[in-house]
Design a protein that fits this description.
single chain; 334 residues; alpha+beta; eubacterium ventriosum atcc fold; Type Iii Antifreeze Protein Isoform Hplc 12; five-stranded antiparallel β-sheet; five-stranded mixed beta barrel
Length: 334
Amino acid sequence: MKASWNRTGRRLRIAAFLLTSAIGVFCSVPVHAVDLYLRGSVEVGGGPVRLRDLARVAGEHQPGSVGDKIVVQQVTGARYISATELREALETAPEEVNRVLGQGVWILPMNRTLRAAELEQWLRSEWDRDLARAGRFVLRVKPDTELRVPAAGVNLRLSIPSGTARSGRQIVALDVFPEGQNQISQILLRRQIEVEILEVVEVALPRTDLPRGTLLAAEHLRTERREIEAGAGELARAGEVIGRRLLQDVEAGTVLERNMVQILPVVQSGQRVRLVHQRPGLVFKVRCVAVRAGEVGDQIPVRLVLPTGGSAGSVLQARVIDADTVVLESGDHP
């Protein structure tokens, strides 16, 4: 009987030990531990900045118990907070942090406003760096445009589309990246600016009232520089009206339009022009003859000029660029 009782007591002690060990293992992981999923970068008003602004909080026992924790009381410029700094800031949180997913988070206070006038001045200075566009085209920003960016701790860069400028609406990117870092290494924000590109042209205006049939001469006209929108190609350029006849009566000070004047095409039939054809690493330029008249942008047939002075029999399709140049379409070869 005594041996049986001893065996029973031993079993009870073993069971108690196993239960105590299991409870210890279970309690080593916090019952209410939370996981943080960092957002990478966040836009804030300035402060205070709470944890829920910087990360998604998963596993809170009581909603807001960790997410409401203030991490930064006030922020005036862009600031980076690492995952380690966040853990240290949360040491006094009512619930323990289990995991922090992400290396850190950029806090971006939107405390600087870029308005239309400032943006337009900046855009125009950048635009005019390209000598091919300077003086020929200008940019205009919508008057109600406003962009909010951090006031400190960042650099700003405009990304103006490259290539041949033409009038019309385009989107310009404003990139925000950390101060002192390479411009391409890490873009924190990208803002879009809608701009209108205007062509700058010299237009012709009669000095006095002129009747229909007048053969226009320089003394009849004065010129003005105008910024014209896309689709305003009906305006006659000052250089193309001299020596042309008016098709209608025109009052003094009226900007001449193409339909008011007998205008010849940019490229006339039989005119010799330069044909340009581009291949990777090579550019071919040869003389050719226009088979048909055309305006800028029109596709016209042309024939190559032979060394003897005559023209080849085969016809190529080329697009008119200006009064002296046409570009060979990609499907044809000289």
